[in-house]
Amino acid sequence: MSVRAAGPADASWVLECLTEAWGSVLVARRGQLLDASALPALVAELDGSRVGLLVLAVRAEECEVVSVSTEVLRRGVGRALIQRCVEVARAAGCRRLTLTTTDNNAVAIAFYRRLGLTLSAVRPDGVAASRRVKPSIPLHDEHGVAIVGEVDFELLL
Fold first, then answer.
1. Is pTM, for the whole model, over 0.90?
2. Which phi and psi angles does 108 have, rounded to 5°?
3. Exposed end of the chain (fewer CB within 10 Å): N or C?
4. CA distances to 34, 65, 93, 155 from 59, in Å
5. Phi, psi at residue 59, to the nearest 5°?
6. CA 88 and chain centroid, separation
7. 54, 39 Cβ separation under 8 angstroms
8. Alpha carbon 157 to chain centroid distance?
9. Domain ranges of the chain
């Protein structure tokens, strides 16, 4: 497993990954819309194939994980991406790594907690604000669970 910065040769693959994960390159959280394709990204490779993408935004002393997705499960791809992101954040002088997910995403919530991130905020109806800027956010996930709240995590660096 290796993780590297995304480069020009990854551009079309990054667009495909973001579109598959979010329905477009636009990611909504906290009632704000971000063009994830315009942000720095990390690419995970396994056996020479791209298998994971993490998009990040560094702002002053904070690094936000805007999007993280993997094509293979339980192979350490997500962990490797987050660990490399922590290294990038520290090198940029960040004091905190943050990310937002939705309250229906139990697998991601457990994953972030296993990695040592702590719950920093819960917005019980937070997705409503994000739907105002991105109406295409579904009402329910693939299991029929309502997508309603936003959950923030942080890791102090």
1. yes
2. -65, -40
3. N
4. 13, 11, 10, 15
5. -135, 110
6. 15
7. no
8. 18
9. 2-156
Q: Count of residues for the chain? A: 157
Q: Which two tokens stand for residue 10?
A: 């990854």
**Which single residue is written with the structure tokens 């299991």?**
143
- In tens, the pLDDT along 85-112 reads 999 999 999 999 999 999 999 999 999 9
The count of C-alpha atoms lying within 13 angstroms of the C-alpha of 155, restricted to the half-sphere facing its C-beta, is: 20
What would the two tokens of residue 97 be? 């790594």
Write the DSSP string, the chain.
-EEEE--GGGHHHHHHHHHHHHSSSEEEETTEEEEGGGS-EEEEEETTEEEEEEEEEEETTEEEEEEEEESSSSSSHHHHHHHHHHHHHHHTT-SEEEEEEETT-HHHHHHHHHTT-EEEEEETTHHHHHHHH-TTS-SB-TTS-B---EEEEEEE-
Whether 149 contacts 102, CB under 8 Å: yes
